[in-house]
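Researcher: Quick test of sequence recovery. Tokens follow.
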């Protein structure tokens, strides 16, 4: 059975669950029993709220007295890499929100932040967060190293004379190896550091630090690795998701560049005009 109502009385809250199948990856039918009892009061769009506080707006449509989650559902599925065998539990309390819990094929709740690049793993450095974590090196305390004249000239061409000094990672991963790589990476260009987790190997998006002050409102970026390059979409912060992300095109880049869990990637911005990131991959230790 692909769905089930977990309560039979009309008292709220009411729970139901859906088993994810290959047939409902693009749209999902709400159980008819739920629809008959609560369909008249179901808001449209519906805000699906996850246990980490993230909200997803999904619009539903009615077909032959059946209610289907449609617009926004596919994006939700892709973002959390839902696949055959996942279990999605819904809790409805009669408001504009419906609380959602996602369980993987082992019946354990997924790591939502893993799908969205845990804020603690890719922490954007601020003065406050540095004070709270003794292991977080503040960029103000790092020495500014002037590089050779040729590098300095290239830096000034990219972003002005302020970029002619050594820069620090725009974020600070928690993993020791990634932190060491970020600290030792020498560049006069803006860069950020990502530790590749198992979930990143199958994600269609990758959360990155806020780049608005550096690249403005650009909607596309180029990821350059060796002699190859990939065009990816830049997804800016929204009310629904308050983080910058690499969108369409990132999965192809990740797959074709053979990124693996444990790898560390440094994304170095080498052109603000064309929004080109040179990707440096530090393979995992075997």
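Model:
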């Amino acid at each position: 059975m692909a769905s089930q109502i977990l309560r039979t009385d009309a008292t709220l809250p009411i729970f139901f669950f859906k088993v994810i199948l290959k047939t409902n990856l693009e749209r999902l039918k709400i159980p008819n029993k739920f629809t008959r009892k609560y369909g008249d009061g179901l808001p449209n769009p519906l805000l699906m709220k996850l246990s980490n506080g993230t909200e997803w707006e999904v619009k539903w449509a009615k077909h032959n007295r059946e209610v289907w989650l449609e617009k926004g559902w596919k994006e939700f599925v892709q973002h959390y890499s839902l696949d055959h065998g996942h279990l999605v539990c819904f809790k409805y309390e009669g408001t504009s929100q419906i609380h959602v819990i996602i369980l993987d094929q082992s019946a354990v709740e997924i790591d939502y932040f893993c799908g969205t690049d845990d804020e603690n793993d890719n922490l954007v450095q601020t003065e406050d967060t540095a004070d709270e974590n003794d292991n977080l090196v503040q960029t103000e305390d790092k020495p500014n190293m002037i590089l050779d004249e040729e590098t300095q000239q290239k830096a000034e061409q990219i972003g002005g004379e302020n970029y002619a000094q050594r820069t620090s990672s725009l974020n600070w991963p928690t993993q020791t190896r990634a932190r060491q790589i970020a600290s030792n990476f020498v560049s006069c260009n803006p860069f950020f550091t990502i530790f590749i987790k198992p979930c990143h190997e199958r994600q269609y998006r990758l959360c990155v630090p806020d780049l608005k002050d550096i690249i403005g409102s650009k909607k596309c970026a180029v990821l350059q690795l060796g002699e190859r390059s990939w065009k990816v979409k830049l997804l800016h912060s929204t009310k629904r998701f308050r983080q910058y992300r690499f969108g369409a095109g990132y999965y192809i880049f990740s797959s074709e560049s053979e990124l693996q869990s444990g790898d560390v990637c440094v994304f170095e911005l080498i052109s603000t005009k064309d929004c080109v990131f040179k990707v440096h991959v530090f393979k995992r230790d075997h």
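DSSP finds eight helices and 18 strands in the chain.
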